Amino acid sequence: MTKLFKISLIAAACGLTVQTVAAPISIEQQGSFAVGGTVKTSEGVYNPEPDVVKDKDSNNFMDVFTASVQAGGQTLHGDHATVFYQIPTDARKNPLVFLHGAGQSMRTWQTTPDGREGFQNIFLRRRFPVYLIDQPRRGQSGRSTVDANVKAVPDDQFWFAQFRIGSYPDFAEGVAFPRDPKSLNQFFRQMTPNVGAFDANIISDSLDKLFDRIGSGILVTHSQGGIVGWLAGMKNEKINAIVAYEPGNFPFPEGEVPPTLKSRFGDVVPMSVPKAEFEKLTKRPIVIYFGDFIPDHLDGTQSGEQWYIRLQLAKQWAETVNKHSGDVTLVELPKAGIKSNTHFPFSDLNNLEVAEHLQEWLKAKGLDQ
Amino acid sequence: MTKLFKISLIAAACGLTVQTVAAPISIEQQGSFAVGGTVKTSEGVYNPEPDVVKDKDSNNFMDVFTASVQAGGQTLHGDHATVFYQIPTDARKNPLVFLHGAGQSMRTWQTTPDGREGFQNIFLRRRFPVYLIDQPRRGQSGRSTVDANVKAVPDDQFWFAQFRIGSYPDFAEGVAFPRDPKSLNQFFRQMTPNVGAFDANIISDSLDKLFDRIGSGILVTHSQGGIVGWLAGMKNEKINAIVAYEPGNFPFPEGEVPPTLKSRFGDVVPMSVPKAEFEKLTKRPIVIYFGDFIPDHLDGTQSGEQWYIRLQLAKQWAETVNKHSGDVTLVELPKAGIKSNTHFPFSDLNNLEVAEHLQEWLKAKGLDQ
Fold it and tell me: Are residues A105 and A199 in the same domain?
């Protein structure tokens, strides 16, 4: 048991929050950078004195800007990932690189909706270097090489169901999610849209470049980020291990792709990749986590059907990889004694237990050095 | 002289980067949260089982999503700011709250384009609590209550000029900006677009809420964020002081508004506010910084004309506030012996000198307690 975990148990026993008793975190180095991406260049010749402004009595800055970009010959640096990293004192060898899921940013891994510490702080306290990502075309990486039409469509209730918090306005019974309005407000405000189409290839390219820059490490993905993680793992051998929280899809080798999994709330078509690519995912340990409130049949609810079929697919994939001499551990948290989790186990009320399970797995695989 | 400043001078003398010799930073607390914003609700009644899915052989997840949001009765939590904060051990009383400028996010204040420490780390080392903001509709606060049409228009060269780095591809002579291609690549990739129209009122509302939450502190703005800072200062008395790096506009009291400042590259129309509102800005110390390469006349270049008129306006505003018993210090960095700065003094090659000047000002105003 780590020191923080002990402290947190004491804190819980005393009815205190973790923050009030936690020791300071000693940060050896922290910073941010962009990685990956491309450069888009407009036709024409850059004109530092666009014509529009020459004969007007009144000049609008935006008119000048428009004239400047219309003259062309300019570049746009886009489609990169943005990374914020912290390296604690006396750090372990393997950093943890965290990639968010759909509609999220690096906020996923920071403070929880009810103000407790997320995996960022939890694993810094456990002396892991922590790298947080805003994937290309999301959050601070909003500079995209393609146009984006972002609609301000109210959809919180859809995601409340999809993320297995409950069926709005009802919380799932006993769910490990805070029930006060302030926390739900914070949770909804973690969301941030795509600026340009989601592109798993572009995102995994940026992860490839990231691991080339930082060296070996462990990739931790969530949900939509799962497929990005599998692609990145096929691109870069420096990814020592992959940890996937409720990944949405999986790459099967050609010829071994299972049939489409059907549900009333959206089917899942398993991904197909060349066998040689698939084999690369058999060369490193992988752990996949699923939370609670996942039924064992198609139950007619959005959350139940969506996660029933994705868990089924995860089981098929784990079996396939392991049949090819891979090393996939599939953890259904309730079966491991960790109950009541939503689609966001790493920020749920019991996220210290969830973190502890991950650290034990890393230790078992010799990855906590 | 602070300890880090001394270390950095030794480092410079030895040809080392600051990072290699800097001591760890002890972080008492760090985390993130959303603040401010509104809730938009769609008409209709939330339907957890949208009809579209009932009679189809094949169900597409996005069709289900569309049917769900079309049924209505859902919410969108948007227009909030996202805040990442760090409180160092033995912290000073007044936190520094940093707001970026146009096209930027909290990345502005983090690692510099050439990998040195930005104001985030520099002021943490000087024991100030540091709050970094992604303003509403920017970066991690991309969830907007209005639609956004984001065009992927190449415009790097326009901003290279506007930010006084030079006239692309030429760097201004002696400019305190790194000249290697990797640094310029990083600089361009700091940019991230608006997701929904820029709205200084919404942004200053979120700052108002932030200071209500964290208590008294110092607001530091950049460029487009300048006007937001003046508005926030009129809304919240807990803003003890305002530090503005090259603000783009200023609020004058009705009846004392100077004429429009004209230039070939865009005019500036001074902002007008009721006198009672203006008076609030006379109740706290304010420092305004401008960098180098600003001519003393309209010189026919984009950067020269734009910043000549804005500096002129800054001088007029400082005079107006001080005439009303206010306390504005206008610092033209070259006249203070700090030369060669772009529009981003806080990340330029000499940003430790720029930080030192700010800390001396804070000390002089009794704000470094």
Answer: yes
